[in-house]
Amino acid sequence: xxxxxxAAIFRKELKSYFAxxxxxxxxxxxxxxxxxxxxxxxxxxxxxxxxxxxYFVMLPWIFLFFVPAVTMRLWAEERKSGTLEVLLTMPLRExxxxxxxxxxxxxxxxxxxxxTITVPVSIGWLGRPDWGVIVGSYAGALLLGAAYLAIGLWxxxxxxxxxxxxxxSVAMIFLxxxxxxxxxxxxxxxxxxxxxxxxxxxxxxxNILRGGLDSRDVVYYVILVWFFLYLNVKNxxxxxxx
Amino acid sequence: xxxxxxxxKRYGKHVAVNDVSFQIRKGEVVGLLGPNGAxxxxxxxxLTCYISAxxxxxxxxxxxxxxxxxxxxxxxxxxxxxxPLYQDTDxxxxxxFCADVRGLGARExxxxxxxxxxxxxxxxxxxxxxxxxxxxxxxRVGLAQALLHNPPVLILDExxxxxxxxxxxxxxxxxxxxxxxxxxxxxxxxLSEVEATSDRVLIINRGEIVAQGSPRELxxxxxxxxxxxxxxxxxxxxxxxxxxxCPFVVSVEAAFAAGPEAGQVPGAARAAVHGVEGGDVAVELxxxxxxQGWTLSELRTETARLEEIFANLTKPGDxxxxxxxxxxxxxx
Lengths: 242, 332
Known about the structure:
The complex is a heterodimer of chains A (242) and B (332). Chain A is mainly alpha-helical and 242 residues long. Chain A contains 13 helices and no strands. In chain A, helix 5 runs parallel beside helix 9, helix 9 packs parallel to helix 13 and helix 12 packs antiparallel against helix 13. Chain B folds into 2 domains: 213 residues, Rossmann fold; 77 residues, Alpha-Beta Plaits (2-Layer Sandwich). Chain B has 332 residues and is an alpha/beta fold. Helix content of chain B is 36%, strand content 26%. Chains A and B meet through helix 1 and helix 6 of A and helix 2 and helix 3 of B.
């Protein structure tokens, strides 16, 4: 693995998010939706608590639609336009490309999240929030986002249609969310609910919101990210199997 | 420089490339010629390690395409068919990205980009978005990308497709000049292009190499020189009979001009003469005519063109050079 090559991919991909108004529109839309939800639907001013909990609780569901839009382009467009062939005939390892693309999408998500700084600033101005919880929740949001991104990136590598990549990613992530919630909705308890909760993207994020960063939850997200990036690398290498 | 040995690619039951072997020396410009779907692109994709061969092996500069793909890709500049490019960046931005991936340092990178911009005549559009460029410019951006790291081997898949005649001429000129420092493989289905640029031609049909050699050699392997002769005041039968008896003539047929514009003279006999290879049939025919006391109103040599040889070699259901020659005899 060569860091300069990963960096080259990372720079190119991150730049291309901002090469068109689409990237900016995306961030704007995200801020409108998440802040609008927090301040108006969640009714932050009436709740009267100096906490961002209401903001982060909705995040898995808001990310569900935002993150696949970040990743859908990354492979599908290369496949469709044929640039994949240029990319894969340059002296690059598949791992380097996958990692570069993943880190670029994570960078874009981090930039988007950075723009939500107005929320904690407002809260800090109005009251005395627990900053440790807020920082921990942001870290959790990045971990959650990273897992979504890894899934979306992998699915994008399976198709040349961005629309298909988007829909399939939403479906896949939704599935991994509801395994933690659905058993309770259905009134199921016992091992089924336990396994479901263990696998779910949702429950681990809730753990982080409740009790701060626990190594178990961090490990879960890291393994998940690694697993889907690994699938991604294998899928790109599959063209050379014989 | 490039050694290909028994290269085969199967897609399920379909054999795209079948047991192809060839060698290309340093500094050669080789044209890969064949009808669409013959296996040119598949061969190139295997050489650039984009896909793997089902069996056989290929080495570029001594590096194996299966075992050392990264090394191979460092040696190769590749322009894929239809020249895919990132649309949302400008020309310099794209080349910078390619240079970064290739590991060029900052100073090296600047020099390399300036060099390819000038070689490919792209200075005017360096800050233009690639998506806004015309096809000709885009093709040259693709070529600039392939040349950026000054690779010893260039693999260009149909570099002239979709260009207008002037652009084609420019690209061909560029390829010819590249041949002085680089080993070039380029594919095309336009014959005049290989004739103009290539030291050697590989003709591929249905995944197999059906002929190879310099354009001149291939032409010579065709039907030999064909000479048209028109003799006024002699009847057709006499002309054919006398000519057939000549030692330098392989075969002779009556050739009736298709119309008045073809220079048919009333009361004249006209014949198409296949001469022996190597001999100058027109000169021999002239001497013979003088000897016979004939006057000539036409004596014209027609060299077989690469087009005909290509058409014969790649005719459906007909692969062997000998067979195609026999058929050509029947046809004439």
